[in-house]
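Inputs:
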Amino acid sequence: MTSATTHTAWDREKAAEVIAAHRNLEGPALPILHALQEAFGHVPQDAVPLLADALNLSRADVHGIVSFYHDFREAPAGRHVVKVCRAEACQSMGGHALAEGLLRRLGLEWGGTTADGQVTIEPVYCLGLCASAPAALIDGRPLGRLTRERLDAAVNEARADWATA
Amino acid sequence: MGDSMTDPGIMTHRIFIPRDVAALAVGADEVVAAVQAQAAALGAPVAIVRTGSRGMFWLEPMVEVETPQGRVAYGPVQAQDVPGLFAAGWLTGAVHPLRVGRPEEHPFLARQTRLTFARCGIVDPLSVADYKANGGYRGLAKAIEIGGAATVEAVTKSGLRGRGGAGFPTGIKWKTVRDAQADQKYIVCNADEGDSGTFADRMILEGDPFCLIEGMTIAGLAVGATRGYIYSRSEYPHANATMGKALEIARASGLLGRNILGSDVEFHLELRVGAGAYVCGEETALLESLEGKRGVVRAKPPLPALKGLFGRPTVVNNLLSLATIPVILDLGAQHYADFGMGRSRGTMPIQLAGNVLHGGLFETAFGLTLGEIVMEIGGGTASRRPVRAVQAGGPLGAYLPPSQFDTLYDYEAFAARDALIGHGGLVVFDDTVDMAHMARFAMEFCAEESCGKCTPCRIGSTRGAEVVDRILAGRDVAANIALLEDLCNTMKFGSLCALGGFTPYPVLSAIRHFPEDFHTRDSRRRHLPAAAE
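Outputs:
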């Protein structure tokens, strides 16, 4: 959960396997989409017709589902994903300035990825760390009581593991 | 182990270190590694038990050492403190600057009435033995003994109201589902805890998951449902991992499936994870999402109790409501109802968050004043500046100024002040907060998270953010404030669900209680924190 993500390239058979593994659940669409994103790092366009076929839905229906939920990506994120909380409790502890500062130093907008493909910064609305604010999640690793120094150190540490790998 | 207790050379010391994400976020895993390393270096036999959190987050990571006098806490412990703690003799509860003492004697815990959270932070969340040794499964045994009808009766008599925010009497909802005829009924746990300032659901998922499993099993027995779903959030990966393991353990231990506890009760329970849509915390959007659709709100009626998941009668309850069921059955409906005031019976797990000195989970009977909670229990702000506003009940809740700190913590008393208790969150802000900015955020959040089904919410929120922008820019401030108030009324009365319907609460309360942040935009920019400039 704390390491960088590695994903396989598009593989029709793999996608069909993922879909088959969940299609007998009641309401299988979200479990399948999560599993596809887990496997490929995003929900590939090529998976949409497969899913539509398996669930007896139109492609438009499937596209509607995928695009409704913030979590599902149309393209892979950077190697490391930093989710910074923008919600009220984190704002009350200076989270707004913390996040804006990070984006500025990396030269990114929300949802953007650094040019080296290393880091994507995403907004998140509440990690349940509201009494330990400001908070963030780096590749699934929680960080609370963040300062600019701690956040920068954590982001740099995540980037460095690739440089030395 | 009588003799070994007196010989520290032989005794294995149990050391309790939370696995709650709020402890992990400030270095709990690093403390675990340091304790293991130091114990190995000293040859001291220790056994580390990972627990949930007691909910005193300013003391996390809070480490508890089992001593002959009981558990003694130290916190906040960082990895580099560990050698010093061993040297000071913490294995026997010795004095140290980080010594908190016996946790249950700490004023923050001693003042609480822990019913829903009785075990959280104490037990190993994945130990069925621990759970049963601390009162677990006595509630279900009772429900099996008295049967479904009497169980529904007990829940009604307890006065329990939905802890998700709407405050609807849980027993009445259950009776509707029980009386409905269908080939399949469902129990759905709403664990889509998206409100900023709340973390109580997360703490149960991470710290006492069997309590939720037991509560949902009791609900199934009571209404005749054999299947259940827990709808959690993707923002809670650790909670989902712990809950997922607990479900596996429960299935393997005969606590889920057929013939639970040797009875004829059958209940199958699955965890489902949302995908970052706040609106799925609304019960009908949640049901749509569980069915695999876009999380779009349904018009009511029909009520989910009659036509819910896959069109079947469904109990949709908040996690806290369901996790409170076992203790109500175990200790009796009257015991629970004896706490509280007016029509707000029992206890509420209040979550103190944001800029607060003593942030955490405070479960108490209804009826304290907001001021007591924020100033006495919370200790005021963490920044040590004056409190300016408290947002109660999440992003759709009102901002209350200190002049309203006499408001009693009670569903009706809050409603009388145009505020809501919601899921029990309180977010404290100091005097650097810009309330016009917070009003804009409320509209922006609604625009971002609207499911799009109804116009007042979908369009109103976007227009609302634009109007606040004009106020922030100092353009026609008075006229734009009037326009914003009018828009808020349209959203309040014309929206299909609480997202559009309640977004006006933070906006209107900000205008009403903090007019100086709106009316003076053109002359000066006030209250901007230094860091934001």
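Remarks. The helical segments of chain A are 12-22, 29-40, 47-55, 59-68, 88-91, 95-106, 148-163. The mean pLDDT of chain A is 93.
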